[in-house]
Amino acid sequence: MPVKISVITASLDSAAVITSALQSVIAQTYGCVEHIVVDGASTDNTVDVVESFRQRYGLRGYSLKVISGPDSGIYEAMNRGIEAATGDIIGILNSDDFFSSTEELSAVAAAYARQPAIEAVYADVDYVRPGHEHRIVRRYPSKGFRPWMMLLGMQPPHPSFYCRREVYERFGKYDSRYRIAGDFDFFVRCLYKGRIATLRLDRTMVTMRTGGTSDRSILSHLQGLWEHQLTYMRHRMPTCILADSIQLIHKIMHLKPFARP
Q1: Does residue 252 carry a pLDDT above 60?
Q2: Residue 5 contacts residue 108 (beta carbons within 8 Å)
Q3: Which of 203, 205, 218, 201 is nearest to 252 (CA)?
Q4: d(C-alpha 34, C-alpha 23), whole Å
Q5: Cβ(217)–Cβ(138) under 8 Å?
Q6: Residue 246: predicted pLDDT
Q7: Strands 120-129, 63-68: parallel, antiparallel or unpaired by DSSP?
Q8: Local structure of residue 255 (DSSP, 8 states)
Q9: Per DSSP, what are the bridge partners of residue 140?
Q10: Where would one find the signal peptide in this protein (predicted)?
Q11: What is the full DSSP assignment across 104-134?
Q12: Which residues lie across from 120 on neighbouring strands?
């Protein structure tokens, strides 16, 4: 019996962008998929846009769940989705992101079928400008990641991370006290301290639009650095804010500065 994959999308006033995410889920070639959209009481017509796809999900044979109501932020929304998920494998697709091809979930399922001992997979992520989705402006590579690199503020691309349900049961969900680094804290628990068995997929799995919570401004980068320091302190890890700042250099190194719309 094929494994079920649960894709969780947190949304808030995302009517202008969420269609790409929905279309990219429906277009997947893998047959056993559950999509859970957790909306934080949007004031636009986000939920209406999602509901307009319900018949198409049904025809595709996919399950679509919509959870709507106020929350404290993106990590609480993700946690609600995880709690509602019934899949064997769980991943996050942000409302303004989309799968890079129709084969991404098939690649995830195939990896687990080949290597049943693995507990999580991850891959590369591309960034594009809103309105110019044809042109890649930055790549977030996953090759070469090692858990010790988290001491330098580095982590695998969260939008490409698909893990077994048991990982959340063992290490807990996302700490909703964070605004930006809740995924970093989660990775510290399961990758750095927990040393779960992972596999990198040699592909670009997700395309992200720039301007998200973590890369919106210099202030958001500084907020992220501060939250990394909190994570190190909470987990009693060695820390150096200068070393942690290397992640910013890492991002700059992978910019495509001559890309134009």
Answers
A1: no
A2: yes
A3: 218
A4: 14
A5: no
A6: 62
A7: unpaired
A8: B
A9: 125
A10: none
A11: HHHHHHHHHHH-TT--EEEEEEEEEETTEEE
A12: 163, 198
CA 8 to chain centre: 9
pLDDT band of 223, cuts 50, 70, 90? confident
Sign of CA dihedral 99, 100, 103, 104: negative
- DSSP assignment letter at 12: S
The tokens 């809740």 sit on which residue? 182
Q: Which two tokens stand for residue 121?
A: 């997979």
pLDDT score of 218 more than 90: no
pLDDT of residue 249: 59
Instruction: Determine contact, residues 176/82, Cβ cutoff 8 Å.
Output: no
- Rounded Cα–Cα distance for residues 6 and 34 (Å): 5
Decide: 181 and 231 in contact? Cβ < 8 Å: yes
Distances (CA, A) of 200 to 71, 103, 234: 33, 16, 28
Residue 11 CB partners (closer than 8 Å, separation 6+): 18, 37, 38, 39, 40, 42, 46, 50, 77, 95
CB 7 within 8 A of CB 99: no
**Encoded tokens for 95:** 């409302």
Cβ neighbours for 182, distance < 8 A, ≥ 6 positions apart: 74, 75, 78, 174, 175, 176
d(CA 43, CA 121): 35
Would you list the domain boundaries of the chain? 5-253
Q: Which CATH architecture does the domain made up of 5-253 adopt?
A: Alpha-Beta Complex (3.90)
232 closest CA partner among 169, 197, 187, 171:
187
How many C-beta atoms surround the C-beta of residue 256 within 10 A? Answer: 13
Instruction: Please list the alpha-helical segments (H only) found in the chain.
Output: 18-26, 46-51, 54-60, 74-84, 104-114, 165-171, 182-187, 218-234, 241-244, 246-253
